[in-house]
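Changelog note: in this version the structure field was regenerated for every chain. One regenerated record is shown below for reference.
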Amino acid sequence: MSVKPLDPNLNDMADSDSRDGAFETYAAADEKVVVVVDDEPAMLCIMEAALLSAGYRVIAATDGLSALDAASKSRVDLLVVDFLMPKMNGAETTHAIWKLCPGLPVLMVSGLPMEEVRAAAPPAVNFMQKPFEIWRFLERAQALVQEKQG
């Protein structure tokens, strides 16, 4: 698998603070697709790399609008979304993507206290507190994708 930025001017994803838009990885068509949204480039890169290593096809976005655009153009099996982001927060992003993909499993991640996030987020959203251990993140993502297949 290779990672290809949709914007060819952005080469180093981990070190770039100007990573705007969506980046998509290309893999076999039968692999599960995960949209990952986070405005922190390092966190986005970590989650993207972990999911890639587990065999998922990943569409990475730096904001909710880019994620919504990506979800409108691709089949999606899981949305991983940061709660606190500019333009559209995680709750707004989730609602918008659910209009396109009803029933899509969502894993919302946040550095904020979970009580605050739960109070503002839509029901039926799974939560994970940042920072997290990457194996726990992958375990949760895999369970949500399998649950969708169920």
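Spot check on this record: Residues 17-149 form a domain with the Rossmann fold fold (CATH 3.40.50.2300). The first strand starts at residue 2 and ends at 5.
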